[in-house]
Amino acid sequence: MAAETLARAGVGVVLFERMPRLARKLLLAGRGGLNLTHSEPIENFISRYRGAAPHLRAAIEAFPPADLRAWCEALGQETFVGTSGRVFPRAMKTSPLLRAWMQRLAALGVEVRLGHRWTGWNAKNQLVFEASAGEITIDAACAVLALGGASWPRLGSDASWVAPFEGAGIEVAPLAPSNCGVRVQWSEIFRTRFAGAPLKRIALAIGDESARGEAMITAEGIEGGAVYALTPLIRNAIATNGRAGLAIDLRPDASESDLVARLARPRGKQSLATYLRKALHLDAPALGLLQEAAHKAATPLAAMPADAVARLIKSVPVEVTGLMPIERAISTAGGVSFDAIDETYMLRARPGTFVAGEMLDWEAPTGGYLLQASFATGRAAANGALSYLARRSQI
Ligand SMILES: Cc1cc2nc3c(=O)[nH]c(=O)nc-3n(C[C@H](O)[C@H](O)[C@H](O)COP(=O)(O)OP(=O)(O)OC[C@H]3O[C@@H](n4cnc5c(N)ncnc54)[C@H](O)[C@@H]3O)c2cc1C
Question: Do both 137 and 257 map to the same domain?
Fold first, then answer.
């Protein structure tokens, strides 16, 4: 996005990529449906970036979701708003968009050099790259670095930029997994029966924040949208207490008193499990989760009074012992501190070098917020670079 913005302004651009192909992560993101952005009101949208929202506001307001959709459509990829408000290209996958985009960049004169890994700056302030032919140095009038976070490193973004940044005295907040699964020590019986099973239409809570959605039970814990939305809080709780207490509401649409009333009705010859399944529409994984919690509390579900069962359905306690590794996380928290850049995304310690995308210190839930901020900061950094070049040409 930075290359496109600079090339459109008539600047000669060379795009370096360490992998043999461009945009591997963007291609992977499209595998489950490329969620480009979200259609919610802009204030709600910006609030998703939590503490980083004030830093990202200007870039997102300058290139908001509507502009990202228009950009995508101008590349021949019609977009649509899904039921959850998320925006996707009609084709769902990345490849047609990427193909059209690469053709546009070529038409704008952008030169692409693949297999070039940026390794830092040399004493002459030049950019140093490692390529198959050996080391090369580039004396650029300015540079935009958009080197990604640390998740899925085999796709290219391996955070190897952190060492040269820190070596140059640039503050980088420690990288950590975001939008990732969490570890739970399930009993052997629960794990064997339910690993891979979905928990549908649940709400997950930590402290007084909750997220509705779906989750998936895994052999090592749980993952899925509802979990990802709470990653920052889960991470903080683990850092403080070594663990995080989650509560799963298996019936977020019913109140506890409603559940008590339904549980008080005569069950006839039905077992409690059958009754819960039929009357409260709890499926096997939800029932399994209740049994697991009852087992941990050493009180069989069948021996619990109706109000205790209702309370448990509304708030199944799950102890999280850790986050899954960053290698499989959807995104990365931490990165280049906003204090290390000015409002044009230029590194204070390196005038003429700009940074954009996930390598900056922000995180957001899934829902299109990651790509929107990556694209918007790419634009903002390129506009910063254009102002810098204009200033330099006047000197
Ligand atoms: C499975 C998965 C699904 C996702 N789905 C979505 C989604 O639907 N919606 C959404 O909003 N977000 C999604 N994301 C997140 C989104 O893909 C990223 O936030 C986004 O790609 C970040 O863009 P970026 O340009 O900052 O970094 P990247 O896309 O990681 O690009 C950085 C590029 O820099 C290259 N590079 C890194 N280091 C060097 C170096 N030293 N020298 C040269 N080149 C280097 C890398 O090879 C890479 O090509 C998903 C992520 C994953 C893993």
Answer: no
Q: For ligand 1, say whether the CB of 92 is within 6 Å of any of its atoms.
A: no
* Nearest CA-CA partner of 18 in 127, 168, 96: 127
Q: Is any ligand 1 atom within 6 A of the Cβ of residue 30? A: no
Q: Is the CB of 35 under 6 A from ligand 1?
A: yes
Weakest-pLDDT range from 47-61, 190-204, 263-277, 318-332: 263-277
Q: Domain ends where: 323, 346, 368?
A: 323
Distance CA 153, CA 15 (A): 20
Instruction: Tell the residue nearest (CA) to atom 51 of ligand 1.
Output: 330
Q: Which two tokens stand for residue 115?
A: 């297999």
Ligand 1 in reach of 157 Cβ (< 6 A) = yes
**CA–CA distance, 115 with 216 (Å, rounded to integer):** 37
pLDDT band at 56 (very low <50, low <70, confident <90, very high): very high
226-251 per-position pLDDT tens digit: 999 999 999 999 999 999 999 999 99
Question: What Rg value do the Cα atoms of the chain yield, rounded?
Answer: 24
- Which residue, 303, 323, 343, sits at the end of a domain? 323
Q: pLDDT tens across 180-200, in order? A: 999 999 999 999 999 999 999
Q: What is the CATH number of the domain that holds 153?
A: 3.50.50.60
User: Measured from the CB, is residue 152 less than 6 Å from ligand 1?
Assistant: yes
Ligand 1 atom with the smallest distance to the CA of 359 is 26
Q: For a substitution probing ligand 1, which of 25, 179, 379 has the most ligand atoms within 8 Å of its CB? A: 25
Domain shared by 28 and 82, yes or no: yes
